[in-house]
Amino acid sequence: MKNTESVNHEKKGGPWKKAIGYISMVDPSESLCQDCRICEMYCAAVHDGACGLELNRIWESRDPFRGEYFAYSCKQCISPSCMAACPTHAIYIDERTGARCIDEEKCIGCKLCIKACPLDPPRINFNSVKKKAVKCDLCKDRPNGPVCVEMCPTMCLELKKY
Question: Name one Pfam family in it (predicted).
């Protein structure tokens, strides 16, 4: 399932291609998250054909006391520490989108990429059934781009450009 048009850090040592952007919430003055979690469900369904917390590549979170909502997904780091930490070179850069992607066939489930993620919480999830890491790949194979952005009923998600 690996895109053959990819740049693997085995072949090229940084600086790596920038991603086309990352998933972010729009300004709250434009639209507000309603905590419906549609983004999570569609993301998992498109990538895995099922829904579940371990399949999420985007997570919603909220602070009910402050009325704030957050969306967490991979920021597609310019110098991805997850990629450098992977002992099997399972993390590669998609040539078209620049997204940092995981080649499921190469992933051995060691979780070193999760530990290497500099963000808190880490933006890489672990599917304990398949014993593989999963992360946002900007829906690199979808002509319409990220499904979470497309399906959000309140249009509070966007593909934020670098």
Answer: Fer4_11
